[in-house]
Automatic annotation (TrEMBL):
Membrane topology note: Single-pass type I membrane protein; Single-pass membrane protein
Gene transcribed to yield this protein: LOC117576975
Places the protein is found: Endomembrane system; Golgi apparatus membrane
Name of the protein described by the UniProt record: Vesicular integral-membrane protein VIP36
Keyword annotations from UniProtKB, A to Z: Disulfide bond, Glycoprotein, Golgi apparatus, Lectin, Membrane, Metal-binding, Signal, Transmembrane, Transmembrane helix
Organism: Drosophila albomicans
Gene Ontology CC annotations of this record: COPII-coated ER to Golgi transport vesicle; endoplasmic reticulum membrane; endoplasmic reticulum-Golgi intermediate compartment; Golgi membrane
Amino acid sequence: MTQINTQWLLAIFGVLWGLQFATSSEDNEYMKREHSLVRPFQGVGVILPHWDFLGNTMVTSNYIRLTPDLQSKSGALWNYSPVMGRNWEVHVGFKVHGKGNELFGDGFAIWYTKDRMQTGPVFGSKDHFSGLAIILDTYSNHNGPHNHQHPYLSAMVNNGTWSYDHDRDGTHTQLAGCEVRFRNVEYETFVSIRYENDVLSVSTDLENRNEWKNCFVVNNVELPTGYYFGLSATTGDLSDNHDIHSFKFFDIDKSITHEEIVSRSNIIPNAKTFEAPREHKEDPKPGMSNAKIFFILLFVVLVAAGVAIFAISYFKDRNARKRFY
């Protein structure tokens, strides 16, 4: 009797495990375990199945913390397996939170790139990357004429030759973007990245409504097969907890041949509608504040008064000496 119950339990567990990693629909979408992360995370502390992590990343059963709310920290999480499908969709569950009310940073990035496990200055990962970056930036470094509000979600497609301009929040090389509000909320927040037939669509669920809100859609984006998914985050003088709660990869290819996989693997990442990087412009020098002007005028008045008093004293003393002689 015990053996039968055990067999039934194993069978039920197998069915539930299969359902967890395969959601079927009319579009034949399947969540693939080798590219996904769902709670509870089994590799607490040491090993995470199908994924590598580095830096200050901490794995718990409920979340993966890329950085703690401390200064000068960096962490990353990278999938082992290259993505061989042409069309896919990714859902990332996350929470960004910390003690700071006015100042906090810096944010995190979701990567689909040629190289993996490479640290660098772009939210903890390498610059001059080849592939796609979806950036969730929480701190505004740029205050010039083409700034935007933060937090800000943007995309960048790079062929390995361009540099992400962190001081300008990537404004000169971004593909598209939208303002978002996801920091210090009580619930889990989500971003969806869908790439289908060279169309990149990014949506968010940041209000706990269980529905997607469009951020942007960009046509004619060419990405190769065989690249890797990753996530990274960094803190500098400002900090936040950057927590990943889930990463779900859906294969939405109806069918793809070996020849298509091979041909797509040779594509150089590009976007037909991508604006060329604009000339790096320095921020205009800010004008003097009213307080600064006041103190400068006060200083000039005091100096003038001092000179006048000295001149009066000097001439009085000189005239007095003349009368004495």
